[in-house]
Amino acid sequence: MNTESHRTWYRRFMPVVENVAEARHGVRVVLDSWAVPKDTAETVALIVTELAANAVTHARRPGRTFDVGLTCDGGKTIEIEVFDPCPRHPTPKPYDPEATSGRGLLLVESLSDTWEVRERECGKTVWVRVVR
């Protein structure tokens, strides 16, 4: 890993729906400043949008936040972390063409190289790796 190019970004958000767009915007701005190719940046922004929406919708706790972090190794790998205070693990739902929601994790699964849920003392982190 080239440590000179290793970059990180982290931001904490209150779990309100408006902050899903704010998280997406922050990700786009930072990835642009890191000169990440547009197609990769849009993929990462979409994944963050889905995970942030899940955090706001399913993991909201009074007085708690959800956090978004990005790491770029200076090469081709971008790692995404979205932390929320709910210990319940998200699980992809089977595809239903009539459903109006429930496709977020299917998108994350299809757009990422790998993803997993990591338990934390107070909640969980959904970790995703995207290789450009």
Largest sheet: 5 strands, antiparallel
Q: What is the 3D shape? A: globular
Mean pLDDT: 91
Strand order of the largest sheet: 1-2-3-5-4
Strand content: 25-35%
Structure annotation, total helices: 3
- Spans where pLDDT lies below 50 across 5 or more residues: none
Rg, rounded, reads 14 Å
- Percentage of residues in helical conformation: 25-40%
Q: Tell me the distance between the termini.
A: 15 Å
Structural class: alpha+beta
Number of strands: 5
Topology summary:
Layout: E1 7-13, H1 18-33, H2 38-58, E2 66-72, E3 77-84, H3 104-111, E4 114-120, E5 123-131
Antiparallel strand pairs: 1-2, 2-3, 3-5, 4-5
Helix pairs in contact: 1-2, 2-3
Keyphrases for this structure?
five-stranded antiparallel sheet, 132 residues, 5 strands, 3 helices, 34% helix, alpha+beta
Describe the model:
There is one protein chain. With 132 residues, the protein is α+β, with helices and mostly antiparallel strands. 34% of the residues lie in helices and 29% in strands. It is built from 3 helices and 5 strands, in the order E-H-H-E-E-H-E-E. It has helices at residues 18-33, 38-58, 104-111; strands at 7-13, 66-72, 77-84, 114-120, 123-131. The protein has a 5-stranded antiparallel beta sheet, with helices on one face. Strand 2 (66-72) and strand 3 form a beta hairpin. Helix 2 packs antiparallel against helix 3. The model has no long low-confidence stretch (mean pLDDT 91).
Summarize, please.
Helices cover 34% and strands 29% of the residues.
